[in-house]
Amino acid sequence: MSQFLSISRAARLVGVTRTALQKKIKDGELASFDGTVTPDDLLRVYPQTQFEDNSEYERITQIKEKAFGKRVFERALPDKEVLAARIADLSKQLAEVDARLKRYDELLQKLSDKLGESVSRHGQEVRAALEDFRDWLTAQLDQGVLEIGEPNPLAARDNVLRVMAAHVQVQPSGHEFFLEGHDTLLEAALRAGVAFDYGCSNGNCGRCKARVVSGQIKKVRSHDFHISEPEIAQGYLLMCSNTAVSDVVLEAQVAGGVQDIPFQQVATKVKSIEPLGADHLLLHLQTPRTHRLRFLAGQHATLHIGKSLSADLPIASCPCDERNLHFHVRRLPGNVFSDYVFGKLKPHDTIDLEGPQGEFILSEKSARPLIFIAFDDGFAPLKSLIEHAMALETGNLMHLYWIASSLDNVYLPNIGRAWSDALDEFRFTPMVVGMDLGNLHERHDERLHHVLQGVVNDHPDLLGSDIYLAGPEIVVTIAERYFLAQGLPKTRVFAGIVG
Ligand code: FES
């Protein structure tokens, strides 16, 4: 049985984020060896670990499930052959440990017998020492020194986790994720926010080709794309057609920026239309299973209804579910697109998407606190960025301000509250300022500066943070200028224009 747990596995066992565990290690509260920890050390630091589903990990999972297009997250058992292979692997390890214990037992008995023989062959002094040692050994054996005490519950839980999920590590990017249920390697990676290159999702294009460095995989879907014998011998496979049986190390390319995401055209269907407060609605579009929209969190797309209606809108959902796309549409009387969506659009109608566009994306490598400021409808791209950060478990401190012209413009307040209730490192501050943020005049500058000063006051460490601003151009421009004037470098202020 495994004595050491990777940080990801350990974090999941005790139900905290990877970052929280890394902090314990950094602060010297938890011993680690070569990026691993032992179940005993882990239990010492987290003695109160609950073994029900109420951990932070579970809470985050629930938030993700709600956020990601209300998809039914498959908490199913893995494919039965995968399950059988994992159980067989655990049984083999158990049998090896069992055999080793028996050998130790026999060895101790032989040692005791050997001592008995040696005692008679030596002089008085050596004999006395040997007798002492033999008596001590006999007493230890009588006291049941080989009996195994209470098993560590975390080690037991880890065995269950090993049956239910495989851990995947990606080279050279260093991303990690767990693969559960019937997921392929590609599906599990996307859920975890890892932006692998891919195209068709069904084995035709070959773009999801990767190499297995170590671990056992299993083909779960046939594919038309040909992989040559020499490539197969080197471990190449299609991530959309294979799952992980054991923990796996994978060599695959992850999108490094918007330049790695192609421009696409996808025909989607309206899955649902839900009101969000008085003046907004949530438009949920679904792509075909085999033709999803690849995008990075924070980007936007153009929606075409028929030949004459179109609008450019930020994608308000996370790329971890590229099939289910959310858009927030504002009621704009007289605007033909808005009028049609509010008055005539129905579930199952077709909407053609083009995109993605935009460079307002998350700086994933940053470990700095993240301050998100949504002005009115600027919430949509920030929601995508925040959900992506959660999927990646970046662990950065996050503070979302939703600065709105009116109360109606804070059209999804519950989601911000749910995030702050669930995550220690998340804060949510909604603010209604009573001025039209899309039509500011110079005389408003001072009032807006006053609001932004509140953000500065909340964050004495502002200069060590990244700030993401999204909303109408005029207010974002004023806010960007304001934060640059505070001394923040341009590379840490990210601006997304909405509307
Ligand atoms: S995504 Fe096209 S073959 Fe896997």
Describe this structure in words.
By secondary structure, this protein is an alpha/beta fold. The protein has five domains: 5-67, no CATH class; 80-149; 166-254, Ubiquitin-like (UB roll) (Roll), CATH 3.10.20.30; 259-357, Translation factors (Elongation Factor Tu (Ef-tu), domain 3, Beta Barrel), CATH 2.40.30.10; 370-497, Nucleotide-binding domain of ferredoxin-NADP reductase (FNR) module (Rossmann fold), CATH 3.40.50. It contains 14 helices and 20 strands. It has helices spanning 7-14, 18-26, 39-45, 56-67, 80-121, 124-142, 153-164, 185-191, 229-233, 336-343, 379-392, 413-422, 445-458, 473-485, and strands spanning 5-6, 36-37, 165-171, 176-180, 209-214, 217-219, 236-238, 242-244, 248-251, 264-276, 280-286, 300-305, 309-314, 324-330, 350-357, 370-375, 398-404, 426-432, 466-471, 493-497. The protein has a six-stranded antiparallel β-sheet, with helices on one face. Strands 4-3-9-5-7 form a five-stranded mixed β-sheet. α11 (379-392) links the parallel β16 (370-375) and β17. α1 packs across α7 and α5 packs antiparallel against α7 (153-164). The radius of gyration is 29 Å and the shape is elongated. It starts with a strand and ends with a strand. The model is unreliable at 67-74 (pLDDT under 50). Bound molecules: FE2/S2 (inorganic) cluster.
